[in-house]
Amino acid sequence: MQPIERPVETKPPEARARVADKDLLRETLRDQTERGQTKSDIVLQSVQRLLRRGAITNLSKMLGRMHPADIAKVVTHLSSPKEKREVFELVRGEAKRGQVLSELDGDSIQQVLADLLHSDIAWLLKDLGPDDVAYILGFLPEERGKEILALMKTEDSTEVADILKYPKDTAGGIMTTEFFSLPEDATAQEAIRRLQQATDAEMVFYIYVTDKEDRLVGVLSLRQLLTVPPATTLKNIMTRDVISVTVDMDQEEVARQVASYNLLAIPVVEKDGRLVGIITVDDVVDVIREEATEDMLKMAGAIEEDSVSKSSSVGAAKVRLPWLFTNLVGSLLSGAILWYFRFTIQEVVAIVSFIPVIAAMGGNVGLQSSTLIIRGLATGTVESTDVWTVFFREVKIGLLMGVACGVILTAVGWVWHQGFLGMVVGASLIIAFLVSTSMATIMPIVLKRMGVDPAVAAGPFVTTANDITGITIYLTLATLFLEHLR
Amino acid sequence: MQPIERPVETKPPEARARVADKDLLRETLRDQTERGQTKSDIVLQSVQRLLRRGAITNLSKMLGRMHPADIAKVVTHLSSPKEKREVFELVRGEAKRGQVLSELDGDSIQQVLADLLHSDIAWLLKDLGPDDVAYILGFLPEERGKEILALMKTEDSTEVADILKYPKDTAGGIMTTEFFSLPEDATAQEAIRRLQQATDAEMVFYIYVTDKEDRLVGVLSLRQLLTVPPATTLKNIMTRDVISVTVDMDQEEVARQVASYNLLAIPVVEKDGRLVGIITVDDVVDVIREEATEDMLKMAGAIEEDSVSKSSSVGAAKVRLPWLFTNLVGSLLSGAILWYFRFTIQEVVAIVSFIPVIAAMGGNVGLQSSTLIIRGLATGTVESTDVWTVFFREVKIGLLMGVACGVILTAVGWVWHQGFLGMVVGASLIIAFLVSTSMATIMPIVLKRMGVDPAVAAGPFVTTANDITGITIYLTLATLFLEHLR
Asked: Mind listing the domains of chain B with CATH numbers?
């Protein structure tokens, strides 16, 4: 490994240029992917190698050939802020640098922009859509954001300010104000002309039609426009039944609508029906991934981060601890129950052999049921009206699995210790399974009805509650039949 | 509640028509959504009520106003196959019924089509895209699918057969063969004319350009076409750097590409570069949701179903049991360890008070780490090259949390029983946390490198292994310091 200060001239430049050579890279890719490494792994390694060698020219060439999204990925994965800044500065052209910026995560944006002047940042942002600008500025201190906005074209900055005034996770907060709309009495010919002139609305899928008060009244596809006589007014060809969302709708609900109606973009309206923006499907894709990640992390009590290696470890620990504390209290309660039954345990010590099984299995069975329900509620395959169907199904499955595991446990108990203990363990397990599946099914639906996020239910509460129930049932039964166990 | 047979004429028809009335429905919606019910809940309830009353005319009217995707949702949620068929039959127009069909899940498709003739099914499918037809036929017995295909237009059926020959979860299996491509020497004017005639490729976002051997060589946006002089050849305006995927690429990887490059559609090529289809972003949205669901269920060992209330309970139990059996064996091992240390436990019975804490906490801490890593690997925010950064971060967090929980436990132990036991418990917990976070971080990355799905790692193996480690450490320490605990 060469130190960073090493001069670039020790090898003929051609030899080093090859590292960034497309064919060689492709070949390396083929070799390495077979060894389980992904393309981005290898690109990242190449960039790091070039950085370490200080091979600036080659690195810059390589970046020139890369897609902004791939550069953003590399920047995100570099470990030091210094390296991130170095790579970012080497991207040529402020349009491309702006695009890279719009694909970065919050921390990288802060690090990369830390030393830049407000005017430089305004320059980078000038070609981006207002939604991307709003996204980027959302990670900077409010004061700084305002100063940067003040340096941009008034037209652009008002649009950005419009988006920034809505909460980040609502339709208003993720929409773009660059959409293409026309009055209902425009003709197809006029529409095509306007379309040819419209330079900012780069991705036009639908043409939205509005009335005199700017209220959304219809929608047209681009192809519809090309296939009618030029003098037709839009009013006569548009579809009047437009699916739209209001500015304050939660982004998760927006995503669900776009997904279920297979839309490319969904218009966003104010409460009075005025069209104020659109949300395109590529942003919805991001929302869906984010929400799925969030739900999974919530279920494990680790919601802090949408990605690793970002926030400080102390911060991460702080966010994860409450969940662990809940568990700590719960399992201490289980411990207290064991302590309460200590005489039973001391008398028939074989009982301890099955404590872990009883404690773990109820929680696990519950986790299966609640994961299924929570995910179903999130994707819409389970509705809260399905509650009884779902409930009886899960309880039935719980019973079936309880009997299967219970029989095995009884046999194990019989062989290992004695017949009666086996029966007690088996029976406890079956009861614990029934309690567990019922609770795990009901809890998320009840929470959802109460307006609480059901993803938290699968977490510590259900598991802990199930563990306690299991142990209580087991030791109560064991104490009741103590004479037969001795 | 009225019996199903009750004649429809007992009330004036207007009174009942209102149930399906848009304004009333909207009002009910507002009332009910405030009570935590969703729009689809209420629509479902209305449909069920109309079905029960046998109010066929009103139901049919209501269905006439609904979007095919919403009808599909209702059909999916109806509990009996008979009801599903009834509602499906009431949808007017085979084009709309075809669309409803394409939005249904596998079980509902089978139930709804069960009694239909092959020719009727072929008629329903005639207006659908080949990807949708392939999706639907994929759920019917192969023989039946072939006979239906034989009844369709040869042109359509070859396209469907082309898709059906690829595995369901690859690019080839989810692509549509209805895309719009032109030779590189066509002019912009010709392109526009061809576009106006192309009736099947309903959603044109990009125009793909091919060479004489049908190989994909470039791409154009619709707007680019409109803004150049009519005589320009496509060769001169197209973008040559097209992002494409090969037919055999896994659908999850396809989704990742579409998401990271913000594409609306991605072209699918054969190994020789021939363009054979495209995958549109709305299908990618489905893939992303499916894969997230699958990962979540895998982590809980309940992969059987992407939705509840579908497959039989016995089937579901069979799929979930292996995971529980792994857990059973694991926790019996923990039990065996307790049994091995039974003399220690009998001598100082206070030890049992902390067994649940030690057993549960290690597993939970591991679950947090591995969920984070698994999700990161799935979304691409964690690369396998990040392994050390991620590892040290998680271990550090584990240590911090271990110290926090360890101190609390020491205090609890001190107050509850005696000082030395508290220290043993605290120390065991910290060690268990360290082991647990290390394993939970390393396992998914190692599994991924070995080509195994990392989502299984968060499940039973890591948790069980962590539980065993925790208990072993605790009881070993307790036995070593037994003299001080008495």
From this structure: 8-174 (1.25.60.10), 181-280 (3.10.580.10), 313-485 (1.10.357.20)
